[in-house]
């Protein structure tokens, strides 16, 4: 997999976005059911290391955090000295195939509005997670309230995708049909094991429903399965 072009949203995450307080919490029950504390874990799109630090504090010792943003990684090193945080903007990441037992992808796809960028991320995690390992995704499905529907409709023509919208402070985000997220996982060789929906605060002080998906990396050629919980 080659290095993708810079994301159009990179500038936001080197400036205004790097000051944000991220809001998707770990579901400890879901995490510990599928990810033992002995697991080698990649926190991709780790930002300033919020969840990386939480994992280490919970007893996970082999955790690596990677993010595209130099500003976020610099913040993480200030706030969480000693964490294994790395800034790496392109693909492939500097790890061998099947290097990890689990990966986290928390509110990352919502920050990548284009299809190709999302496929590149999930595909790279499919390379790095060993067969039988898991990918724990937390992201934002399409919302059904009037405010969000208005945002989607307002920006649909500009971006060509219903669910992409801009925020007043210059961010560009994407909310997804759940079947799109499941399809990305299938393409990268993952089978959905569990899904959960909860309501979480957003970066702009509102609330939104989030969708958590726990998916298993299947051996090459294995049929995908799906399940909800």
From TrEMBL:
InterPro entries: SAM-dependent_MTases_sf. The keyword Secreted does not apply. Gene3D superfamilies: Vaccinia Virus protein VP39. GO terms for biological process: methylation. One of its GO terms (molecular function) is methyltransferase activity. SUPFAM superfamilies: S-adenosyl-L-methionine-dependent methyltransferases (SSF53335). It holds the Pfam family Methyltransf_23. It comes from the Bacteria. Keywords: Methyltransferase, Transferase. PANTHER family: MALONYL-[ACYL-CARRIER PROTEIN] O-METHYLTRANSFERASE, METHYLTRANSFERASE. This is Methyltransferase type 11. The lineage of its organism: Bacteria, Bacillati, Actinomycetota, Actinomycetes, Kitasatosporales.
């Amino acid at each position: 997999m080659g290095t993708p072009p810079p994301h159009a949203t990179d500038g936001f995450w080197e400036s205004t976005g790097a000051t944000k307080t991220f809001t998707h919490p770990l579901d400890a029950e879901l995490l510990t059911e599928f990810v033992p504390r002995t697991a080698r874990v990649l926190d991709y799109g780790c930002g300033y290391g919020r969840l990386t630090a939480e994992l280490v504090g919970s007893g996970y010792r082999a955790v690596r955090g990677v993010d595209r943003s130099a500003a976020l990684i610099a913040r993480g090193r200030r706030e969480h000295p000693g964490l294994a945080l790395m800034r790496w903007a392109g693909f492939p990441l500097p790890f061998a195939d099947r290097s990890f037992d689990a990966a986290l992808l928390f509110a990352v796809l919502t920050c990548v509005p284009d299809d190709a960028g999302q496929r590149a991320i999930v595909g790279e995690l499919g390379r790095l997670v060993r067969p039988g390992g898991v990918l724990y995704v937390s992201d934002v499905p399409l919302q059904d309230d009037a405010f969000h529907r208005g945002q989607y409709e307002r920006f649909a023509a500009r971006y060509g995708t219903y669910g992409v919208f801009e925020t007043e402070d210059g961010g560009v985000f994407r909310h997804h049909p759940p079947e799109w997220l499941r399809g990305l996982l299938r393409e990268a060789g993952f089978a959905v094991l569990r899904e959960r929906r909860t309501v979480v605060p957003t970066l702009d002080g509102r609330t939104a429903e989030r969708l958590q998906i726990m998916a298993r990396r299947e051996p090459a050629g294995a049929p995908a399965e799906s399940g909800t919980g």
